[in-house]
Amino acid sequence: MKEFKGKVAVVTGGANGIGHALAQEAAKREMKVVIADIDKEGLDRVESEFKGLNADFMTVYMDVTEYSDMEMLAKKTIDKYGQVDILFNNAGVSVMGAIWELPINDIDYIIHSNLYSVAYGLRVFIPIMEKQNTDCHIVNTASVAGLITSPGAPTYFMTKHGNIGLSEAVNYQLQEKGSKIKMSVFCPGFVQTDLHNCDKRRPEKFKIDWEDPYYQSESYKEGYIKNTHVITTGIPIDSIGMSVFQAIEDEQFYILTHPQYLPIIGMRVKNVLDMKNPDVNFFK
């Protein structure tokens, strides 16, 4: 896709962080933008901002962990704009902690937010795009955490690996049927966003029980401090929108923004092929 003016972009998690940057870039390119989020205050801020930009946009309050909400998002988009040209399957959360310590509720929360939501978006929007029979693009926001692993956040790595595997397999299916839909999977490292505060936007069904032993533990406190540090010291978000849109223009599947991780990705692949055991000393 080379031309964006007048086309329609749908962005989940569009009120904050990477989603917000993608929505801004879409507006700059004179696209019609549908900004979906569970953060009501964030949507209010976006409403004010995008009106100031004289953008053609719509905000939708929705929960990506509910399939019916994803259907509602698609219906509102088609009712207002009649088509969808780019889907940014972007919404996601971060959960730190050892798998044997995490409350089951937290495990469900991150799987539904980071993986089910991506599957829901593909399930709902691909048939719409196919029916249009026009050039379309889907960008699934994963992470470099889908290409490497470390001890810090196993549930996060699990969902991001799943996202990339899903994206690759669906892309093969679309190629196989000669679809006009192109795909990308966005795999950034740490970016200066508000991801470390994602718990403020949890759906009620995944509400934190602060009496749970995990939330009283030192490991929770240490994990939150570390998560906050690596996110707030990540790369500036300014170039993210431009980088992703350039990849769409180039029909580039893997979008990597942090070259310092490339040797680690290569080493991991080599270790797999050489059947070498994972060694935690690598991180010391």
What do you see in this structure?
The chain is an alpha/beta fold. It has a single domain, classed as Rossmann fold (3-Layer(aba) Sandwich). It has nine helices and seven strands; from the N terminus they run E-H-E-H-E-H-E-H-E-H-E-H-H-H-E-H. It has a seven-stranded parallel β-sheet, with helices on both faces. Helix 4 runs parallel beside helix 5 (154-176). The longest helix has 29 residues, at 104-132. It is globular and about 50 Å long. Keywords: Oxidoreductase. It comes from Sporanaerobacter acetigenes DSM 13106. Belongs to the short-chain dehydrogenases/reductases (SDR) family.
Question: Portion of residues in helices?
Answer: 40-55%
The shape, in one word, is globular
Strand content: 5-15%
CATH fold type: Rossmann fold
Q: Encode the helix/strand succession as letters.
A: EHEHEHEHEHEHHHEH
The CATH architecture term is: 3-Layer(aba) Sandwich
The CATH class assignment is Alpha Beta
Q: Oligomer, anyone?
A: single chain
Query: Taking all residues together, what is the mean pLDDT?
Result: 96
Name the poorly predicted regions.
none
Gap between N and C termini: 44 Å
Strand order of the largest sheet: 3-2-1-4-5-6-7
Would you kindly provide a brief summary of this structure?
This protein is of the alpha/beta class.
Keywords:
Rossmann fold; about 45% helix; alpha/beta; 7-stranded parallel β-sheet; about 280 residues; 7 strands; globular; about 10% strand; 9 helices
